[in-house]
Amino acid sequence: MKAIFRQIAVCITVGSLALGAATSASASIPFFSSSKDEVPSLAPMIERTSPAVVSIAVEGTQVTRRQVPEMFREFFGAPDEQVSERPFRGMGSGVIINAAEGYVVTNNHVVDNADEIIVKLTDGREFTAKKLGADKQSDIALLKIEADDLSEVALANSDQLRVGDFVVAIGNPFGLGQTVTSGIVSALGRSGLNIGGLEDFIQTDAAINRGNSGGALVNLNGELVGINTAIFGPNGGNVGIGFAIPSNMMKSLVNQIVEFGEVRRGLLGILGRDVDAGIAEAMRSKSNKGAFIEEVVAESAAAKAGLSAGDIITEINGNTLSSFDELRAKVGSMGAGAEVDLTIVRDGEEQVVEVTLGDAGITPEVAKEMHPAFEGSELNNGQDNAGNAGVVVTNVEVRSPAARIGLKDDDVIIGLNRQRVNNVADLRRLIEANEGNVMALNVKRGSSTIYVVIRQ
């Protein structure tokens, strides 16, 4: 059964979406009573906040594909691959972030491959949820339920979190029902854990266990600072090290899903590494933290903004950067076209550079969702060798569906069924509008123009 709460294995086991005002995570603590006869308690805050945290039950089918060795295909007429299906059930948690719209945020791995998603409220009501969109790299998914009298949780500004701030985790561990644990922020900007494509986690010692996935991490005002997503533990249980996706990162991704139905990931266009003491000394930077630029991709957002190899990025939008991975996660969660202020150190001098992020295109997972024939490829907005706009096909996996229909690396899709394709959005729209059993892709390959036929 698909694990509902991810573990780091063995030793490291939209526009106008109203998600709540961004507030300080270190504001005054409202739950302490001024009466000498009352004991200080978190109960008033929990009573206000907990109705916005839900339990999620899923049922689905896990599909496994395995390539058949060529000798068996040749001599026994076996298919190219064997497909097996296995039903699964699981449980997790979620957070209502917009009561009027019925929006519920959870982790992607909680609802991935789910055929049915049931959301259960603290008052006992149950609703079938629709998945509006998800992002596998950041492990965020957005659900929608049709219900009245919902509670929502306000969002805090997670960029204002500090190590040592008190936090409370609310979720549904082990399917026991809603459970509350407390702790502090143990660290910020955690990355390099190899549990996701984009890692910029809040680390906390508030007890988090299986089933807490997608639940809320709130401050003492009852405002959401993070979405609980992973644990560190050799045996799958709590050892005081849990990780949550910052609320600001979640909000940016959710806004994109609401507006576009998908995440349109921003792209800076640099290659680099973490700053260490040696790099800082060589580049005359006062800080040993940040992102060191080794290469700037031609025609990228970074190149257009004037960034250069040798620059050290120390802040993004006024917030200190700890590592290159943190920069990658923050940029990757912002939408294409977002304007970002980067503080850099160049020749020992600090300056601020404004960058308009480019479009990273779509991942193989999203390409597959757009149409199964594109599975095993990445699709990016780009140009052919004549400078005409189109969709560039990259990283086509051997023996993948994309390879089998004839797509190759560096192909540029410029049309579908004799209609012009300028970008990924055009391609998606034409695929959704196609009512026939065949689609003909007009592809530019080098100096030649060919057609690739997809049969439904």
TrEMBL record:
Pfam families: PDZ_2, PDZ_6, Trypsin_2
Keyword Hydrolase attached: yes
GO cellular component, one term: periplasmic space
Catalytic residues identified in the record: 109, 139, 213
InterPro entries membership: PDZ (IPR001478), PDZ_6 (IPR041489), PDZ_sf (IPR036034), Pept_S1C_Do (IPR011782), Peptidase_S1_PA (IPR009003), Peptidase_S1C (IPR001940)
All copies of domain PDZ, residue ranges: 257-348, 363-424
Binding site for substrate: 59, 109, 139, 211-213, 268-272
SMART domains linked: PDZ (SM00228)
Annotated localization: Periplasm
Signal sequence region: 1-27
GO biological process: proteolysis
Keyword terms, alphabetized: Hydrolase, Periplasm, Protease, Repeat, Serine protease, Signal
Domain of life the protein comes from: Bacteria
The keyword Protease appears for this protein: yes
GO molecular function, one term: serine-type endopeptidase activity
Family: Belongs to the peptidase S1C family.
Name of this chain's protein: DegQ family serine endoprotease
Organism (species): Brumicola blandensis
